[in-house]
Write a structure and sequence with these properties.
Number of strands: 3
Shape: globular
Order of helices and strands: EEHE
Oligomer: single chain
Largest sheet: 3 strands, antiparallel
Strand order of the largest sheet: 2-1-3
């Protein structure tokens, strides 16, 4: 059983009157007793995913468990 799980996360920003998707249908799960790294190139959405999971950024879709 997952300690934390994010499913189907979608985040977009409004730019010049249009929605620009940043994350679309992304997800992950964390198991108790494991150590995880969040890695990827600059601009890949790592900080955006963390802010969405911490409820610091509005999600257009997705569930947190």
């Amino acid at each position: 059983m997952a300690l934390f799980q994010a499913e189907h996360i979608a985040v977009s920003y409004l730019r010049d009157g249009a929605q620009v998707p940043v994350l679309a249908d992304e997800g992950f799960s964390l198991e108790a007793g494991h150590l995880y790294d969040l890695v990827g190139p600059s601009g890949a959405g790592k900080s955006t995913m963390l802010r969405a999971c911490a409820l610091m950024l509005e999600r257009q879709a997705g569930e947190l468990y």
